[in-house]
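re: ur msg from earlier - yeah i can do the 1-deoxynojirimycin complex, just paste it... oh wait u already did. ok heres what im feeding in:
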Amino acid sequence: MSMSNTWWRGAAIYQVYLRSFADGNGDGVGDLAGLRSRLPYLKDLGADAIWLNPWYPSPMADGGYDVADYRGIEPVFGTLAEAEKLIAEAHELDLKIIIDVVPNHSSTASAWFQEALADPAARDRFWFRDEPNDWQSIFGGPAWTQVPDGQWYLHLFAPEQPDFNWDNPEVHQEFEDVLRFWFDRGVDGVRVDSAALLYKSDTAWQDLDPVHDVYRHWRRVADSYDDRVLIGELWLPDQESLARYLRPDELHTAFNFDFLSCPWDPHELRRVIDLTLTTHATVGAPPTWVLSNHDVTRPVTRYGRADTGFAHGGALHGTPSDPELGYRRARAAALLAMALPGGLYVYQGEELGLPEVEDLPDELRQDPMYARSGGTNPGRDGCRVPLPWSGDEPPFGFGGPSPWLPQPENWRKLTAEAQLADLDSMLNLYRTGLRLRRSLLGDGTLHWLPSGDDRVLAFTRESGVTCVANLGPEPVPLPDGEVLLASGRLEDRLLPPDTTAWLRTT
Ligand code: NOJ
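and the outut:
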């Protein structure tokens, strides 16, 4: 894969949820020092780029998605000077850095919101009204909160996250300036949080037309630098609406949440893959393949349940999950995702096969979804538990004696250290897969191969590599060719159920 000015088209992007990645100063919260010390791990894993969740000063009402200052670094994570060092060190290793920008909402602790609270004449940058409407917050409860003088402000998420008013030109100016601030510091890309929500009308709060103009302006800013990428976080009802954000003068790519949410079902997967490829082709944008992130149930747990799809709202939380089945399918899904044309996202811990931690004590849950839903939604803490790096007991080399969320005792077999020593581990599957992917797969197209069984997904890439995933109940014979990698043990060239193999066929 070429790492020229279209590096992002086929990149493998590793998502670092900084709070839970590695703790350099021992206070229990992951930080920049921890990440800097683990850059060689990410290089060896085969990542091309790192996306970091918000690293800005924040009261952490929503894990940093409540941004108090878009031009600084949260002191718990480090300093701006350290962030600059991180960027330089990553670049030395040929790793790109992508940061998170949150344009839909701010923090009640931001200077602008504090000004608005103090002075009713300074409220136009937010959504203040004399009367609320009936909108509910995405985290539960009303989307409006009253301030002492009687007015109400809109927050599609937590009350600590007031929504910006994008009809105000100052908001536009501010964000274009913030983009330049970080591009000037060498950041290679920006993940745009809640990218479809910026504009609201009296009756709708997402996917309104003027938002596209915002991204046209942002694209011009990005294009005035070399090789920078804008990535949309867009949960939309269909791929056509998604593709409209990926027109050549708007965002470069977006997360493929249809693929992430898709059940482990051959027909559904094939449908989503085909739809993704055809709609992205209409705008010339590379598709992306995402199995997990910091907002969703870990794949190992999801794929072991009777219902293997992802549902918002924690509807499936605690339903029985067969760990062996889930693990086998997560391995097969990883090789399937890695073989598809376009970009790939890997969320920290996915490469270790971490399960969702479903039994966190309720009093330790920090995700506002939990409290806002009155406890009916467990929230997203279960996929945010600090990583196990080494050793036999918590904190498993995370750093410091007590990580901000407790790690399960039985993660000793899942540490990076233990898995590096085991050739058959999930970590080694990801390492080998990402290495092969870099030379043989990446951006491009695919050709489906006819197969006698519609529960087998088989396609060839232009490099001559064929990927076969068996989602049926019986072993199936593999096509001719040298087996390069398989997610499970093969017997006599038979591909077992819930297993994916890569072969060189030409
Ligand atoms: C999407 C982020 O991924 C999620 O973690 C956050 O809670 C919401 N946007 C609000 O910023």
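cool cool. The first strand starts at residue 12 and ends at 16. ping me if u need the other ligands too
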